[in-house]
Design brief:
The complex is a heterodimer. Chain A is mainly beta. Chain A has one helix at residues 36-46; strands spanning 2-10, 22-28, 56-57, 60-61, 65-69, 72-73, 89-94. In chain A, strand 5 and strand 6 form a beta hairpin. The longest helix of chain A is centred in the middle third of the chain and has 11 residues, at 36-46. Chain B is 48% helix and 7% strand. Chain B is built from 18 helices and seven strands. Classes of the chains: A mainly beta, B alpha/beta. Bound molecules: zinc ion (ZN) (2 copies). Chain B: Plays a central role in 2-thiolation of mcm(5)S(2)U at tRNA wobble positions of tRNA(Lys), tRNA(Glu) and tRNA(Gln). May act by forming a heterodimer with NCS6/CTU1 that ligates sulfur from thiocarboxylated URM1 onto the uridine of tRNAs at wobble position.
Chain lengths: 99, 443
């Protein structure tokens, strides 16, 4: 089974993704559920074009990059453990060197 | 690297106690609506309450610091980034007739076009167009000024060997920035030039104040990196609501009305209001966090914020407690030749009754030691025999504060030239006639 997810990279994060801000992707997840932790691994292997350390730190996003799920702060949704639903819009906004 | 498949999922799940995904927490303010943002460790806010909270913080900081008087004109310094974009929207809302307590000043926007120092970045023109569109949409009068116009502030020309018959100001500013040896010095120099230009240009265009978009998050980074850069003496001016009389010789004051909100709050505000931003790559973009003091400090602060959400407030409230320093008449035999630093315009921190024990004197001492070890050839080889310019450069040092002197030591050729000319200018303009006379004798 595949899951359709809308990914947005803003605030400069798009520079690591070929300058493309909006991506609609289809992720094969089998029978299991997909959480953000797994999504990050998928992004790392399939979407990220360069400099992993500028997007991720360890298993999570680099501090300074904010994550919203359908415009809601991911800290309210369990962060990495949030289980993604069909057509969820997940936004990564870099606030590093913003001004 | 970490595993995310199999058993690890269970472990991760068990780490997050009470939140079931999707269920959503209630707002702590109204206890009714579903929260959309977490502020601090426990502040869950719904859309409505967050909106009130955010606008209130902006208005409260304006109220606590009544610097802008009714009818005055304020220029918002726009960078394309989220902070200044949010500021424009806040001011726009505050000026509209629907506002609860209408703001009573007039506003405009100033955008500093830094493209001449990034000649190799593609799509710069498109981005400038995007910015122009955003400014038109705002409905405010707007001004695009080029960074190289900072050379007009002090009417400075520098010589560069470009191979071309004439050297444009844009080539000069490119040379000035890029002849700094470290990213730390480049970032610091650029920041000072930007402030200088904003203050000067805003005044020329008839504005009484400049609004900067610096949030508490940004200020926490600035406070810590300024301390690391030896700028502790100027902390109040560099990070307070107002920079006071710092720029009075060249223009108006710079204000920071967003200093009570975090960058996270700004991003949420922009998301809710669909505020558009334009990202301009800068010197720090795609650089590792070890590339400069500022970048390293930023990583440090953001790393802390991730674990301890009240980091920003803790750091920046400390700076609230620091009072600005008024110029203290020092001993006549101090090494400083001006009251104010010719680059950052801060009060000189190098006046001390015993100048031999000052940090600036230490800087000289360690430099002397280095030169002694390397032989005296270092300085003369860099200057290529231009003795007059060597002399000129040595005069610069008396008009720079400790931190700017450290920056100056990380520059060469064009940047050194610029700083030297700035110094001569500031000494000439200086109100200390005595020193002026003294220097004229030497010149
Ligand atoms: Zn509420
Ligand atoms: Zn200085």
């Amino acid at each position: 089974m595949a899951l359709t997810v809308i990914l947005e990279f803003l605030g400069g994060a798009e520079f690591l993704f070929g300058h493309v801000k909006h991506h609609t992707v289809s992720i094969e997840k089998g029978e299991n559920k997909l959480n953000i932790s797994q999504l990050l691994m998928w992004i790392k292997e399939n979407l990220l074009q360069e400099r992993l350390e500028l997007f991720m730190q360890g298993c999570t996003v680099r501090p300074g990059i904010l994550v919203l799920v359908n415009d809601v702060d991911w800290s309210l949704l369990g962060e990495l453990t949030y289980e993604i639903e069909e057509n969820d819009r997940i936004t990564f906004i870099s606030t590093l060197h913003g001004g | 690297m970490c595993q995310v498949h199999g058993e690890d999922d269970i472990i991760l799940d068990s780490l997050v106690p009470s939140i079931s995904s999707g269920a959503g927490r209630k707002c702590v303010k109204c206890n009714e609506n579903v929260a959309i943002i977490m502020i601090g460790t426990n502040g869950t806010f719904c859309e409505l309450c967050f909106e009130k909270h955010f606008t209130h913080k902006f208005r409260a900081s304006m109220g606590r610091n009544p610097v802008v008087r009714n009818g005055e004109k304020v220029a918002i310094a726009f960078s394309g980034g989220s902070n200044s974009a949010a500021l424009i929207n806040l001011v726009k809302e505050g000026l509209s007739n629907n506002a609860a307590r209408k703001l009573k000043f007039k506003a405009g926007i100033i955008f500093v076009d830094e493209s001449s120092i990034y000649p190799h970045i593609d799509g710069m023109n498109n981005k400038l167009e995007e910015v122009r569109d955003l400014m038109i949409d705002s409905g405010f009068p707007y001004h695009v000024i080029k960074l190289e116009e900072v050379l007009n502030v002090d009417d400075i020309n520098i010589e560069i060997t470009s191979g071309m018959a004439t050297t444009s100001k844009s080539m000069m500013i490119h040379e000035i920035i890029h002849s700094s040896l470290t990213l730390t010095a480049k970032q610091e120099l650029l920041y000072r030039l930007r402030c200088r230009l904003l203050s000067y240009k805003a005044t020329q265009l008839g504005y009484n104040h400049v609004f900067l978009g610096e949030t508490s998050t940004r200020l926490a980074v600035n406070i810590l990196s300024n301390v690391a850069l030896g700028r502790g003496f100027h902390l109040a001016q560099d990070t307070g609501f107002t920079d006071g009389e710092r720029h009075q010789k060249i223009g108006c004051d710079l204000l920071r009305p967003l200093r009570d909100v975090t960058t996270k709050e700004v991003v949420m505000y922009n998301t809710l209001h669909k505020v558009k931003t334009v990202f301009f790559p800068n010197m720090a973009t795609k650089q590792s966090n070890m590339s400069s003091i500022q970048n390293l400090t930023e990583s440090f602060v953001f790393g802390l914020v991730a674990g301890f959400p009240s980091t920003e407030t803790t750091v920046y409230r400390t700076s609230n407690k620091i009072k600005g320093v008024k110029f203290v008449e020092g001993n006549a035999k101090t090494i400083s030749t001006t009251k104010f630093c010719s680059l950052c315009l801060g009060v000189m921190d190098t006046h001390s009754s015993n100048s031999k024990a000052s940090a600036k004197a230490d800087l000289y001492y360690s430099e002397t030691l280095c030169k002694g070890l390397l032989g005296s050839s270092v300085e003369s080889s860099v200057d290529g025999g231009k003795n007059s310019s060597t002399e000129l450069r040595s005069k610069t040092e008396g008009s720079l504060c400790y931190s700017c002197l450290a920056t100056q030591k990380e520059t060469q050729s064009s940047a050194k030239d610029y700083l030297a000319k700035l110094a001569i200018k500031s000494v000439q303009d200086g109100d200390e006639k005595e020193i002026c006379e003294k220097l004229n004798d030497v010149l």
